[in-house]
Write a structure and sequence with these properties.
Radius of gyration: 18 Å
Number of helices: 11
Order of helices and strands: HHHEHEHEEHEHHHEEHHEE
Structural class: alpha/beta
Strand content: 15-25%
Distance between the termini: 41 Å
Length: 257
């Protein structure tokens, strides 16, 4: 894959037939320095009452950490993700496209889109669809990353002979912490942005190698050796491989427009 691969094609290659890539990426985040992990922090800020819909729910890890108060529906485009989502207690699982949700207009109290809008070719179509299914006064919660999110990993690109590694770690449709609040405001009211404070401090090469492989596929022996050496040098110099994060939660209300 190269930088001209569109967002949906990349998402299909990453998630349509396996949960392993997502699992490897979540594992790296376990090295965060914030004493409250992402799911715990997020759960305190999500609208959880009434009819709750999570779009692009992946493996459903959120709902193994957070208790929903109302009726929960979780969706994903991937059949293997939907199979994992059926393990979420009390949830209804639907396989569908984020831009065409099988709900009547104005029937949902809350929509959650956690780190998924950048997988879409037309994220604005999804935001319009979220607004359509929400009741007036319903709440939206969208998590996205900044343009500099985990940019420290991009230094490994030249080391492994993959100069477009930076492209793979960045967004293909400008769904970023910088641009998305305005996109949300085009469809919703009362838009607020809160950043999740965190940095990864990784003491060994393996979790980083697994993360990189989840993005570009299995590393060759030469690539792994070069990457491992570069990571080890950083750990020796700094005590750990540090990765700065930039993730925000955008919250908004469905108005009467």
């Amino acid at each position: 894959m190269t930088g001209d691969v569109i967002a949906s094609a990349l998402a299909t290659s990453q998630y349509a037939t396996t949960t392993g890539n997502l699992t490897a990426r979540m594992a790296l985040h376990s090295y965060g320095t914030n004493p409250q992990d992402w799911f715990g922090w997020l759960g305190e800020r999500l609208p959880l009452a009434g009819d709750v819909l999570e779009v692009g729910a992946g493996t459903g890890e959120l709902w193994h950490r957070v208790s929903h108060i109302g009726r929960l529906t979780v969706t994903d485009f991937s059949p293997v993700m939907c199979a994992r989502l059926r393990e979420v207690p009390g949830a209804r699982v639907l396989r569908c496209d984020a831009t065409y949700l099988p709900f009547r207009a104005g029937t949902v109290d809350a929509v959650i889109a956690n780190s998924m809008l950048y997988h879409l070719d037309d994220p604005d179509a999804a935001l319009r669809e979220f607004a359509r299914v929400l009741r007036p006064g319903g709440r939206l919660a969208v998590a996205v990353n900044g343009r500099d999110h985990m940019a420290d990993l991009n230094t490994l690109g030249p080391v492994i002979g993959c100069p477009d590694l930076a492209v793979r770690f960045h967004h293909r449709n400008d769904v970023t912490a910088e641009a998305t609040p305005a996109r949300v405001a085009a469809h919703f009211d009362d838009v607020t942005v809160e950043r999740y404070p965190d940095e990864l401090v990784v003491p060994a090469a393996e979790p980083i190698l697994a993360y990189v492989a989840s993005m570009i596929g299995p590393l060759t022996a030469a690539q792994e050796e070069a990457a491992r050496a570069a990571i080890a040098a950083r750990i020796d110099a700094e005590g750990a491989f540090r990765v700065r994060k930039h993730t925000v939660l955008i919250s908004a209300t469905r108005g009467s427009r």
